[in-house]
Amino acid sequence: MSGTPNVTRATPDGVAWLASAGPYPRSTLALWQECPEAPVVLPCGTVFDVVSAPAVFGRRMLDRLWAEGPGSGPVAVLRGRMLLFAAPGTAQRLPSLLSWEEWGSHRAQAVPPLLCHGTGDAVTVPAPASDDAAGAARWLVAPDARHPWLPGPEVVLWAAVRAARAAVRISIFLPAEQDAKVYDVSRRR
Hints:
The chain has 5 helices and 7 strands. It has helices at residues 12-19, 25-34, 55-67, 90-100, 153-167, and strands at residues 40-43, 49-54, 75-78, 81-86, 115-117, 122-125, 137-141. The strands form 2 sheets. A 5-stranded antiparallel β-sheet has the order 5-2-4-3-7. It has a two-stranded antiparallel sheet with strand order 1-6.
């Protein structure tokens, strides 16, 4: 990815921001001081929401955000899915925006479902110093500020639609009929 920052370790301000999402921020910080490679489960809905996409489609979304859009907030990879950290309220609003865009109707095969995690949900967050090359849980764009910019539902929708358009091949020709006779006219005089 050309413009994506290469920040794979959270800064102390980013760690404080992540810990602030949990019910006991000081306990989370103490855990990470003792074991900086430990992932934790944090609640969504107050500090951040998370939009989860299959890794390949999520990567396309991230490419669009950095190449043509405003960039992204923190982004993690966990168990074959990309977790885009978004502004609180995104998980509630994004599904209706996707429905309005007729997400999944005629493009169902090319566009995977996006999972929205908001109020009442929790996600596994990679450790601040995650260097897991095996891909279990790691940061692609680690949090680096006490109040990072987080995309809202409209920005995530924009990136998803752009990524879907790039994934779908459009042809102006109708598909050939099975029993149609085809003639080579390129050799005509």
